[in-house]
Design brief:
2 domains; 4-stranded mixed beta sheet; 8 strands; 31% helix; elongated
Length: 202
């Protein structure tokens, strides 16, 4: 990737753009690419988990016990059932405004996510919650860290060149579109295609 980025910048020998010099641009290109693909529902950013929520719980964060997933960006969909049972999961309702304040029952029913806090209506018993969410990839913090988006070398090299001197913008957008199309082709026969976050609550 570094060699390709230097080639796009007209520095094949690496006399100007050493790896350490390019590294901040590559990390920013990586973050930008993640944002673009996540907005379009790329499968790599879709994750799910189950959390057993104790009775009377009103909020969860990444620091509580139990905790939200460390790689969570935003929840998309939540379902629940009583802890210890194998019945059908019941879809929970996301609220934009304040949560209702009913007497505690055997379900949570409503949730709201704001300020990195998942707010819940307390139940009178433990509930198993299934959570589908947008996940973030591990950041690139050193030169040897892996790039976790398959087939993204060209997009990152073009994106790096674009950040450095404004060149290769058209090539970068074409690479992004190809990554999105490849993901669609790979999942065209899936029973349900997850809806990108930006469309879920509109």
């Amino acid at each position: 990737m570094y060699e390709l980025s230097r080639r796009f910048l007209g520095d094949r020998e690496g006399t100007v753009w050493k790896e350490g010099t390019l590294f901040p641009y590559i990390t920013e290109a990586y973050r930008s690419l993640q944002r673009k693909l996540a907005e379009n529902g790329h499968q790599i950013f879709i994750a799910e988990t189950e959390i057993t929520v104790p009775a009377s719980t009103t909020s969860l964060t990444k620091a509580t016990t139990p905790a939200l997933p460390a790689n969570l960006v935003v929840p998309w969909l939540m379902k629940e059932r009583e802890n210890g049972t194998t019945g059908k999961l019941q879809r929970m309702t996301r609220r934009i405004q304040d949560l209702p304040e009913p007497d505690p029952g055997d379900r949570i029913r409503f949730w709201k996510y704001a300020g990195n806090v998942l707010k819940l209506v307390p139940s009178n018993r433990a509930v198993n919650v299934w959570l589908e969410y947008e996940a973030e990839l591990a950041d690139v913090t050193k030169l040897t860290d892996p790039i976790l988006i398959s087939g993204a070398v060209g997009a990152l090299a073009h994106g790096t060149a674009m950040l450095v001197d404004g060149s290769h913008a058209e090539e970068y957008m074409a690479d992004v579109a190809e990554l999105e199309n490849a993901d669609l082709r790979a999942n065209q026969f899936a029973p349900v295609r997850p809806i990108p976050y930006r469309h879920r609550w509109s």
